[in-house]
Fold each of these.
Amino acid sequence: MGSKVEHYVHFVWSTLARRQLITTELEQVIHGVLKIKCLEARCQAIAIGGTSDHVHVLASLHPSVSVARLAGIMKGTSSSAVRRGAAPLADFAWQSGYGAFSVGPREREAVERYVTDQKNRHATERVAAQWEAPGDC
């Protein structure tokens, strides 16, 4: 009999010094890169959201991929894409840390809604503190 693994992680990280650099155009680039890189790592980006200074990703991890590895892949490739893209932003960078929160199958839908509703949540100040202040990120 084969293995069944449901490993969901809610990632969050911000721009360096929480600079508000993520425009609508950059958001499209960042989100596109995150989706592709997750798939290349045999993971799935279930939901991506954020605001002008941070990103949230709810991902399903493949059993062979560590949280740290996927975070590094997502952060590294997305910042490179912004710095080298069609409208390059040479000084774009993410802060060094990130938050990563385990999500059970029962909580997955609620976290997915939380991630995709970021702009509205921040506009109305309805954010979950534990998912918005992950250490130094």
Note: The CA atoms of residues 94 and 108 lie 26 Å apart.
Amino acid sequence: MGQVIKQNEKIRKLFYEKIKAKIENERQRLGDKVDEEHPFLGWLIKGFAFDNYDNKVMHDKEKGSSGEDELLDQICFLTPNDSYVLPDYVLEPRKSVFIQMDQIVINLKGIFLVEVKTWSGSFLASDKAWKIKVGNKWEFCSSNPTKQHKRHFELFNLWLQNNLPRIYSSIKDFIYPVIVLKRTDWIQSEYSSIPVVSGASGFVDFIIEKPRGKLTDEIVETVTEKLRTAKPYEEKINFTEGSTKYGKRFVRVKGTFENAQDVCEDYKAKGYKTTEINVDKKEKDVFYFYIEQFEEKPIKL
């Protein structure tokens, strides 16, 4: 049985706060778009748009949740003793881009990224689409686990590059994405770039077949601890503060307009009055705004 390592609960709450804020911002932008495109009937159309959006968000939250705990418990129980099992981890590889990993298993053989599906039956799996057998017919599945988990795999690698750059090159070839179905009667998955296995025992067999000793004990401990304490994405913004020859204070931000907005909001939060953000006439990736302090107090950004 592997040793279960849960994500730091305080940090986890920060992730969910950011996800909630993102959903609220997207909902607001949806409403603004409807008002702009339908100035007279916006109030009516907006109601339908919000209902559809809220239903989609709720569907995404609940999708696949039934029965997942049982399968994850089985995986934890059957996983080799030298493994760390990290269930239900949230990461932010890029700003406002989140992934939720059903399970990450780390041992000397590698890092195993597990996507759990409680589906049962017979399946045809491929990168383009999945099909399930219903009676004597094959029907398209409502989602494509291969496509979904391929995105998780790519973003997880990006997270490792950003957070463990010194060891990433030595571990990148030993990161194994895998899709675990609750139970299958039959499956054809050679056209899926992500391996598909049946049940917890199928996943354990997937681990056993990998060569041992690809990671060191030190690397296993380092990656596990880094994941356990993983914080939301922190973007380092390049900005400088200065004054014109007339003594008017300004802030210059190199990056995107969104970067400049973030810096501007930080100044406002610290008690400054700010002007609108302008783009530099010579450097299109440089933005600036002027500041005036309401009260004297140190600013820390």
Note: The first strand starts at residue 3 and ends at 4.
Amino acid sequence: MRMNPNEFGKKLGIGVRVAGRIAQQRAQEAARAKDPAQQPAGATAQGTVASPAPNARAVYEPVLRSVPDAREIRAMKEKTHKLSRAAGRGIGGFLRPFGRVGGILWLEVTGFFFGLFGLYFAVDLWRNRLGYAAGPQHSRFLIAAVLTGGFGYLCVSAFWRAGRR
């Protein structure tokens, strides 16, 4: 999972702008709290400021210092990558025995269902046994024989593979 650099830049820019606006609003509120009678220069009827505050650099500087540079971002990515690999190894080591048992169980369940299908076609084979040579059910007998053999092979091989594990 890699983050697109353009997408990261967009999110970072949006975050900086929002943080700047919040910091500017708080600075203005703090100034009004000190002297409520004094309105900032350039204030409109709604109470918004048309020009930036005179101490904008003091407001934006802490926000800009909190933005990580490329080296810090690379270091964070490396730490995250190492942590995710370690977590993956730990989870994989924990789940390995369950995977083995789950694989054996899967082979046994599929072998059982292949056996059921093979049994169904074996019954059909028995019903059409008299038409094996040249009767009207000759093609149905051959189809049932092929399917019985195929599903029988799949059933036996699934149980044989489960026994080898």
Note: The chain is about 75% helix and 0% strand.
Amino acid sequence: MEYSQVKSYLVVFLGSGIGGMLRHAFNGVLPRLLGFAFPYPTLVVNVLGSTILGLLAGYFAVKADPGQTWRLLLTTGMLGGFTTFSAFSLDTVLFYERGEIALGFVYVSASVLVSALALYAGLVFMRTA
């Protein structure tokens, strides 16, 4: 493996650790502030992560390109460790922007439904195995 590949993996590793710690902090603090009856941490993290990814993607595309290392650290790393919903949201919006509305609808539907069914199947399997 080349140095640049090793470097990119280490940058993502570092960023995802930071993002994961932030996610853990939200999971610990928000239920105490907002209550335990609703999954507030997941909702807040998903919306916040999607907002931040939108800001970063727009900045990188229009204002300045900080280079691959910073993109990997902030997006794949930190936001990936914080929430993968931001990547899902970006993919969805890109379908819309390209005018591929039907394909975007298929992507959203399949992602939500198939993921929920897969999780349910995993739960059922482990409960009955």
Note: Helices lie at 3-34, 40-63, 68-82, 85-97, 101-128.
